[in-house]
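quick one before i forget lol
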Amino acid sequence: MPVRFHRAILASYIREATYQGLDEAALAPYVTPWLGEDGQPGFYRQMVQFDRRYTDEIEPLYFRIRRPVLILWGAEDKWLPVSQGKRLHEIIPGSEFHQIPGAGHLVQEYAPDAVSAALISFFSRPGDPG
């Protein structure tokens, strides 16, 4: 596939995950790894290999997690609905779930202050270093 077509498809695909859109500068770090001799075939290989069964087969083991887990989820996520984040929270013992308003799948792009605050709070707590 010609590079310009691949880039257009890729940009459209990634923009689909956004809530308020991304300008070219913000989009570049998400597109760049999937360009070039290795990136382009890697992107399509990843799409072909996606299969929910890989998640389903390990999901029954989540109850064994004994480390602190923080789940941050964009309230406007178009790829993975908030219900999936809440379900993940329910099956990981002691996990924390924070829904970030006004953010989509790329929550760090729309709510960097909320993400940073949640991470700082989470990692600043005393606990088992692991």
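fyi The two ends are 46 Å apart (CA to CA).
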